[in-house]
Amino acid sequence: MRTRLAPSPTGALHVGNARTFLLTWLHARAAGGSVVLRVDDLDGPRVKAGREGDAVDDLRALGLDWDADQPVLRQSERAAVYDAASARLVAAGQAYPCVCTRTEIESAASAPHGPEGPAYPGTCRGKFADEAAARAATGRPSTLRFVVPKGAVAFDDLVFGAQTFDPSVETGDFIIRKAAGTSAYQLATVVDDAASGVDTVIRGADLLPSTARQIQLQRALGLPRPTHLHLPLVVGPDGLRLAKRHGDTTIRSLFAKGWDAPSLVGWLAWTAGLASPGERVTAAQLVARYDVAKLGRDAVVAAADTFARGDGPHESTEIRA
Questions:
Q1: Of 154, 162, 203, 304, which one has the greatest count of Cβ atoms within 10 A?
Q2: Among 265, 253, 237, 271, which residue's Cα sits nearest to residue 307?
Q3: Where are the beta strands (DSSP E) in the chain?
Q4: Which long-range contacts (CB under 8 A, 24 or more apart) does 121-126 make?
Q5: 187, 82 in Cβ contact below 8 A?
Q6: In contact, 13 and 251? CB cutoff 8 Å
Q7: What is the DSSP string of 181-197?
Q8: pLDDT tens-digit profile, the chain (321 residues)
């Protein structure tokens, strides 16, 4: 099996990232599988200079590696590949130009609001012959939207079990290329996983709904469908995923506070049922212990003082749904 580590150089890696990357690496290494490195740097305005190198250093500090014989894939260098995939979908009638603004979509009376905002009501579907016609008619640049088939998409997740989502209801036709010309996440990740031979996708549970959309794109493009494993998120006491409001939880800040790799890896492993409270352990030592059945489905809730010092304060951390 093959999976990937996919840091985004938009900010420093934090504890939530570290947990996902550690468990991704362990899943692969315990199975004798391979790991490739991908840099998700498509979000141009948010990408920060030097962050790719920082992310690589942080991964190595945790004891994680990747296959040296596989090239690092940077999404910012793959525009032509994404454009070709988009063109295939347009030619097959499975994508179309859209000039709707976010405000127009939100104000559309027929647009239901799901967990990710209003579903696209299909205003531009079949409206323009091509992108040039869309611009000529409106004076606006266009996005490209994927024509979402009606009906639910079911899949099995290695942690969360049977899952069912209906993108036609929850999101409607979704964007695969932005108005600025860059590929959207859903298309880029599907194309890149196939190109890299990734057959096991491991990521946070917040991306479970995205899986249904990506399966639809894989079907449309004739790409293989990988196995999926979604991991519970690390959240603050308020139940929201870790952010600046919860304090500085970046890997580098924790090291500055006195944590070191064995103490941090030990804490992360403890939250996944792979280590004892307070145990210091390396990533390599965890390979023999790894068991996907131990991972659980509940979010990891870090109390306010969990990362205040470097002695692994497990007593102030709980696991809950």
A1: 203
A2: 253
A3: 2-5, 34-39, 73-74, 95-98, 113-114, 117-118, 143-146, 153-157, 161-165, 175-177, 200-204, 227-231, 234-235, 299-302, 317-320
A4: 121/172, 122/172, 122/173, 123/98, 124/96, 124/97, 124/98, 124/99, 124/100, 125/96, 125/173, 126/96
A5: yes
A6: yes
A7: SPBPHHHHHHHHHHHHT
A8: 999 999 988 778 889 999 999 999 999 999 999 999 999 998 767 777 777 888 999 999 999 999 988 889 999 999 999 999 999 999 999 999 999 998 888 887 555 566 677 899 999 999 999 999 999 999 999 999 999 999 999 999 999 999 999 999 999 999 999 999 999 999 999 999 999 999 999 999 999 999 999 999 999 999 999 999 999 999 888 888 777 676 778 899 899 988 999 999 999 999 999 999 999 999 999 999 999 999 999 999 876 677 765 444 443 333 332
Six token digits for residue 188: 């880029």
Which domains, ranges and CATH numbers included, belong to the chain? 2-77+232-320 (3.40.50.620), 79-191 (3.90.800.10)
> Does residue 264 sit in helix, strand or coil?
helix
At 67, list the tokens. 């296959």
